[in-house]
TrEMBL record:
InterPro entries per the UniProt record, alphabetical: Cro/C1-type_HTH, DUF5753, Lambda_DNA-bd_dom_sf
Domain HTH cro/C1-type, residue spans: 18-73
Pfam families registered for this protein in UniProt: DUF5753, HTH_31
Protein name per the record: Helix-turn-helix transcriptional regulator
Length: 285
């Protein structure tokens, strides 16, 4: 396995392989849990990559699945060891959405719909500080600063000159008209959004109010796609206390179709830049 693959993706690939071995054996997660005297949720979390996998976990599971090829077992054990390495985000301490950051770091493309705020990867520092402070009114300044720094570090994927993240953002008009941090902060943010939209790997479209009801009316979501065919696409839905990750092909397809409708209903790239520019002017009055 390439050494540049981050631990989140390693866990995910290992989990997929363990699920495959279980299915070949014809066992349910509940049956495996009973054999190992652990909870069914542990088996599920190991398989979906949401939980750190130890070499002992791999050894025990390979025993249950009667994997006799030592080369396979050794390979899985090495994957488990590699998956316990720390990604860059661990240097910032406990980050509640670290699983998402790991996926985003390794993604080849990201399609995001944002109804309330400018997408995090396209935020200025001042705007990010105001958004995070508003969303977490009881958080101490140190936590706010840490989250802002993590967000700035994530933006390296967008601004990279080597293998940048392919980003497509559909933003609801309400996100542009919501006064966050004051007029000057909004002017700088909207100008930055226009500037970023000129990057060859970034596409920004605005969904104006006049479009009425649309497929994204139920809220924010993102679709992550990866360069390796072995890594299935993921739909990410952010929550207040927990996040949702959808990986089943039918779920990803459904959200992808929704996104195509959003792109079709939104203003095109040039119209979007003019629209954002007009809103920015409104903050100078």
């Amino acid at each position: 396995m390439p050494t540049n693959v981050n631990p989140t993706v390693r866990r995910r690939r290992l989990g997929q392989e363990l699920r495959r071995l279980r299915e070949i054996k014809g066992m349910t997660a509940e049956e495996v849990a009973e054999r190992l005297l652990v909870s069914q949720s542990k088996i599920s979390r190991l398989e979906n990559g949401r939980r750190s996998i130890s070499q002992r976990d791999v050894r025990d599971l390979c025993g249950v699945y009667e994997v006799e090829d030592h080369r396979v077992v050794d390979s899985l054990m090495q994957m488990a060891k590699d998956s316990r390495q720390q990604g860059w985000w661990h240097a910032f301490g406990d980050i509640p959405y670290s699983v998402y950051i790991g996926l985003e770091t390794d993604a080849e493309s990201l399609r995001v719909y944002e109804p309330q705020v400018v997408p995090g990867l396209l935020q200025t520092r001042s705007y990010a500080e105001a958004v995070i402070s508003g969303a977490l009114p009881e958080a101490p300044p140190s936590d706010i600063e840490k989250r802002v720094n993590v967000r700035a570090r994530r933006q390296d994927r967008v601004n990279s000159t080597e293998q940048p993240l392919r980003l497509w953002a559909v933003i609801d008009e309400s996100a542009l008209r919501r006064l966050v941090g004051g007029n000057q902060v909004m002017i700088e943010q909207l100008e930055h959004l226009i500037e970023q939209s000129h990057l060859p790997h970034v596409t920004v479209q605005v969904l104006p109010f006049e479009m009425g009801a649309h497929p994204g009316i139920n809220g924010q979501y993102a679709i992550l796609e990866f360069p390796d065919a072995a890594d299935s696409s993921v739909v990410y839905i952010e929550g207040v206390t927990s996040d949702l990750y959808l990986e089943k092909a039918n779920d990803v397809q459904r959200y992808s179709v929704m996104y195509e409708h959003l792109r079709a209903q939104a203003l095109n790239v040039e119209q979007t830049r003019e629209f954002i520019s007009d809103i920015a002017k409104s903050y100078t009055r």
